[in-house]
Amino acid sequence: MNSTQWAFEYIHNRLRVKNIKQGSLSDKDINDGLIFFKNTLKSSIKNNDIDTLSFIFDTVSYKDYKALKETEWETILRKLKSSFNTSWNPEVKIITGKEHRKRDNTWWTDRVKADKNLNKNFYWKEYKEFFLEKEFNRNIVLKLENLVDNILNNLGNPQDDNFDRYGMVVGHVQSGKTGNYSSLICKAADAGYKFIVVLSGTNINNLRNQTQQRINEAFIGTNGNKEKCGIGIGHNRDLKDIPLSLTTDTADFTIKSAQTMIGVNFETMNVPIVLVIKKNATVLKNLTNWLQDQYKDVISDHPMLVIDDESDYASVNTKADNAPARINGLIRSLLFLFNKSSYVAYTATPFANIFIDYKAENEEFGKDLFPKDFIFPIDAPSNYVGASKIFGSNIHDENESNNDNSLRNNFLVDIDDNEPQPLPIKHKKDFDLLQLPDSLYDAIRVFVLNVAIRNLRGHNETKHNTMLIHVTLYTLMHESVHSFVEEYLTEIKDDISNFGNSKNYKQQSHHFNELENSFNSHVKNIGLEFSWVEVLRSLNECIDKVITRQVHSNKQVAQLEYSSSNPISVIVVGGLSLSRGFTLEGLSVSYFLRGTKFYDTLMQMGRWFGYRDGYEDLCRIYMTSTMQSHYQHIQEVTVDLFDSFKLMFDQKKTPDDFGLAVKEHPDNILQVTAKNKMRNTLRQFITMDLRGQIKETARLSKDKNILEENLLCIKNLVNKINSEYKYISIPSIKSNSFLWKNIEGKLIINFLNEYQVEGASQFILSSRMPIDFVQEFARENPDSWDVAVYSGKGNIYEITDGIKINAEERQINSKDGYQEVLQRQVSSGNSEAINLPEKIRKGLGAQRKAARAQPNRNNILMLHILEDKFKKNIIAAFGVSFSGDGINGKSTRIRMNQVMIDEINNFANDETKELEDEE
Questions:
Q1: Helix ranges, 85-176 (H)
Q2: Backbone dihedral region of 48: left (phi > 0), alpha (psi from -120 to 50 degrees) or beta?
Q3: CA–CA distance from 329 to each of 173, 193, 279 (Å)?
Q4: With CB atoms counted within 10 Å of each terminal CB, which end of the chain scores lower, N or C?
């Protein structure tokens, strides 16, 4: 353990004790803790205080300690704050079904949890004390416990005679669903559940094995070799308390292994039985056969919990209900065996789940898997790196700090050199790969730089490093790509090993210049605390440890394995096996070319999502600008669905009386999910509601003539308004912004008709400026308009006589056929509050949604004179901030679930009946 890591762990352990006592730590607590230790250490070394030094250096030899630089102390402080100051305040908004509301849904928290005769409080206590509180601050653990208590409340009480429960927990990709259901398993076991089945996300061994390892660490305490792991480390556990697992790290369920296992008896078992199985027809059939053959007369009286991970995959019925799809039918048959069963679906992409027919049920297979009893959407903690942080969202990124925004600037790197050669997205399985794109070589260099930087930050002794290359479906192509990657990495490793310490290293190999160029392009600009020379020195120390692995159907290649005792730095070339559920530990660089037309599949491929504490600034995602647009659209659709869930809760609706729908891609480029999962859906046209929204021209033309004409549009409008209306001067950063109140709607409509919006017909729903909708809105609402011109930090620009502003400086990136404002956000700060009284404006700060919701507030046409940060070009842009009094606009398509279809049909039938009664 190096000095940086040792010092971090020492301070962290002592702050953790204080955190448990206080419940939380402030920045001052953390700063004071570090300064106290730093000064104590310095003083003890200076005075040779043997007693204090012996106490401090209880795990590390004093002789091995190297004095830390100031930058290393800053790294420790940043890691401590990340560890203790992560905020997470998830709202408990569980949507419950009609029948479910009549039940006792506080049985766990109100009675059983506090009753020592009913609640063992053993498995959760151990998971919390020996695992969770070592990894997370106490505030996070308490919030997690509260969430899981609420989920358990909505499952059946094991003490009841019979029950069936069907629920769904909706999280985010790689946001900690495994930790959530591991906690649920522990608490369910304490409550009396004796048979627990975890359905691994796919029919792939590596994911099932990884899930088994997580359950071993959280619940069982030993692995397949009976070695202690996770909660089993650090204390002696009585054998009578260890759960019985019918599966191991490497072996799925088989009847033979179950029959040879000593102690498997439902009648006499005092500990829970747990299985982690693939969604495989043979495995599921073997399980149901074994249960029926061995325990037919007794299993029905024992409570069973089924956790269905990645429940939108394979579990959803794609056929008629009287002859359901194989996996769906087998899951339902398993549940049907038990008089007492609870089924909890976990997913981050619930599109297919909400499309299940909520009325489907038959005598042979029982009820379908629609979450009729509860739906629980869960927000992610503040340190979660997800789609909204990476791709932006006009809903979730509005209140981010400048630091958050600037960090997101660096995540995405465009791939624009793969087509038509050397690596097209569409290719045959025997495609002749002659070389890799230069962008992929750049990505590899960035990854090895990350390894070196994380080594300087003290990560590599305890944490993994991973790069993902996902460019193809085909095994032969995986092997070809891997061969080129291995060859290139070997060249870099050899040259660094041979020449990295020499004074004239740049003359010895072109790789050093290329590494430094990648460092300057992608890493230096994040405010890195290390110089290129320091990073190169670190590369000399750790480059030899970087390896490559392939993950595909050929099992003859070396397997990807993450061991807690042996951290690795690995470049992984893979595809389908890594595209859903599997966690790539310490992932910091993804090179992504794979395409798919399905929302859910595409979002699940996002292996870069998750927690990147201590190295979020190093994360890079290489993908085409087209793919970035796809992700932006899907993210916005996902946000809409989450908002629908919250609306269901607020309106006290149930899963079977509140219809859900998903917006379809306006150009049919993408599809919500597979067609056979949408059998019970209906496509319908709806209208866009602009109330409380902001729409902006983040996408801009590259055509100089169009840019000049648009600039003239703004000049003409300002000149016309300024000659007829009196402006209000609003104090700004360098100069003044201007506001004109109660402008005639005709002027607004003319401007909207004249300004040429880039890509106006493309991605209507996800566009920042769906001009057709906005024009229709203006025609329908000609009154209540204000116009604002904003001043920024750029050079002085005169729009018309008497109206001078400082241009708003923005980074504008070149894309395929157009250019785009960085983050797709033209306005910033409290710009939407410009037409509110000063006192209210200051009170709202950057709460932009709250500004739009203010009573009697006019809609604002927001005019922007942008100055390209690098080229210094002047570009005209505009936005519209709609008050809460908007109307519906132009039609677009949605995909409705069966509940909504029935709602519409019932409404139509009621209207018909009313007309008949009138006659």
A1: 123-127, 133-135, 138-153
A2: left
A3: 27, 23, 12
A4: C
668 part of a folded domain: no
pLDDT in tens, 534-567: 999 999 999 999 999 998 877 778 888 888 778 9
* Whole-number percent of the chain with pLDDT over 90: 43
**Cis bond leading into 422, ω under 30°?**
yes
Please count the CA atoms within 13 angstroms of the CA of 656 that sit on its side-chain side.
Answer: 18
- Are residues 487 and 444 in contact, defined by beta-carbon separation less than 8 angstroms? no
Predicted confidence (pLDDT) per residue in 286-301, tens digit: 999 999 887 777 777 8
Does 676 map to a domain? no
Max CA separation in the chain (angstroms) = 102
Assess contact for 364 and 288: CB atoms under 8 A.
no
Domain count, the chain: 4
- Does 383 fall in a domain? no
Do residues 68 and 34 both lie within one domain?
yes
Q: Using the 3D structure, point to which of 37, 60, 84 is the last residue of a domain.
A: 84
Among 38-42, 45-49, 869-873, the range scoring the smallest mean pLDDT is: 45-49
State which residues form the domain around 749: 694-893
As a whole number, mean pLDDT of residues 112-124 equals 91
Please tell me the distance from the alpha carbon of residue 683 to that of residue 901, in angstroms, as a whole number: 10
pLDDT tier at 409, thresholds 50, 70, 90 = low
Residues 6+ apart with CB under 8 A from 376: 93, 94, 95, 147, 150, 151, 154, 167, 168, 169, 170
| 722 & 832 share domain | yes
Write out pLDDT tens, residues 571-598.
Answer: 999 877 777 768 889 999 999 987 778 8
| 837 alpha-carbon distance from chain centroid | 38
Q: Does residue 713 share a domain with residue 621? A: no
Nearest to 789 by CA among 807, 809, 814, 801: 807
